Task: structure prediction
Amino acid sequence: MVEKRLFGTFGVRRTANDVLTPEFASRLAASYGSIVQGTVAIGGDTRTSTPMLKQAITAGLLSSGCDVVDLGILPTPAIQYAVRNYYDGGIIVTASHNPPKYNGLKFVDEFGIGTPDDMELEVERLYFDDEPTRVSWDKIGQIFTNESLIDEYIDETLKRVDVEAIKARKLKVVVDCGSGAGSFTAPYILKKLGCEVTTLNCQADGFFPGRDPEPIEPNLQDLINTVKDLGADIGLAHDGDADRTICIDEKGNFVLGDKTFALVERQMLKENGGGIIVTTVATSQAIYDIAEEYNGEVIATAVGDLLVARELKERDGLFGGEENGGLIFPDFIYGRDAAMTVAKILETLVKEDKPLSELIGELPVYYQEKLKIECPDDQKQEVMSNIAQEIKDTTDFKLDTTDGVKILKDDGWVIIRPSGTEPIFRCFAESDSQDKANEMANWGISLVEKYRK
Ligand code: MG
Result:
């Protein structure tokens, strides 16, 4: 395949106004607009550079002949929802969970799914090797707005859960939006669900004064302490563009993303009597165990939320997700959605009538180890084929080469994946004890060492 020159796993992410200048953004948007030739929705998160970049992409899109609908500041999934239902394409100005100096452009197709490889290569070709379409003065696009979209996104989220049942419980909830785009949706959704809401960092601020936009445990100490101090039922945190939700249980424990995924998977399968679950090859065996118990079928794609979303669409799947807590409800949005995740988790708490810590305690337990090892990019392919060949020739272990090399033993697995951005392999192992997981991850490292020159 031709190497991409700009696009990463979801769009283009760079330092704002250094690499990601108005000129850069405008020409890239015009290249995308040249292909779409229709109405493009735009919006973004709360970063200081977002208004500047929105103006730049607007100019680029109008110049290529596209009409632009400016949706304002709102979560990434709300824009994906809007595109799927009303528009021909979309550009979201956000750097998701990255620090404040970064920004990015996420491009989506007509279904609101991150753009496919062939489209990204065509955008890059127009940007570097050709010229974007520049229409004549009488064909320049127009700018529209859609002020009601954010309310519609909130209402559509609520339609998909039992609002009355949740209201009746009057859950005590602390929500930390990290001053990101969720500030415009999350507190309102919780209010409409009858919760007693305490907000942290729910004022939009591109300097992210309260905490870093990435919802990892060290950044969520205020949330954890507030949940404990108030005796709340749950704490919720979003990343900068509010497509991911992280939970804190009623005891103040940080709940790992794969646990939230497994919990919601169980609920979705129970309610629907089974269905297709899509995830990536790097996801826990717990997802398979639950599928087996509740009549589900698991399909694993290569790593990347776009790939999971696209597979869900193609296979008419019920639900999907990643181990980082990005959950996809494909009847609503073909992408990770933080709001629906919140609504579904609160509904689960109420329907199961148990505290979150107890629900998490019911899930299958596995132990994981993540290691990495350096390897030059030009050797990666050969290292992987040699490892796969050795396993085939010398063992009975099952192999999965969807993404890197995944080796499945009876009591666990290890996946050896080349990084797309760094000269390293990541070795990720899972087993029924921590010792075994460590041992398997180290075995993966030793296999790379054996074939690396
Ligand atoms: Mg995000």
About this structure: Residues 212 and 219 are 6 Å apart (CA to CA). The first helix runs from residue 22 to 36. The chain has a mean pLDDT of 96. The two ends are 24 Å apart (CA to CA).
